[in-house]
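#onboarding

Welcome to the new folks! Below is a worked example of what a typical request in this channel looks like: someone posts a single protein sequence, and someone else replies with the predicted structure as tokens. Don't worry about understanding the tokens yet, we'll cover that in week two.

Example request:
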Amino acid sequence: MTLLEKIIFLADYIEPNRSFPGVDTVREAAERDLNEAVRLELQKTIAYLVAKQQSVYPKTFEAYNDLVMKNDKKTNEVTE
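Example response:
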């Protein structure tokens, strides 16, 4: 995802009129780290869809995996 895509994606999820379990956690994360907030949003969306036995769009998994792998790579670079 580009920076603009992340901002738009996240803005829709955390807009002030939304209230559902976990949205405040994502809002707080958005103030600290955009990538972490997007990862949390994707994680919560995937978990919700799985719990409801709904299909998950492949690009959703792709976006989640991309963020996780980039974070893992960054973490490994810091610890090495």
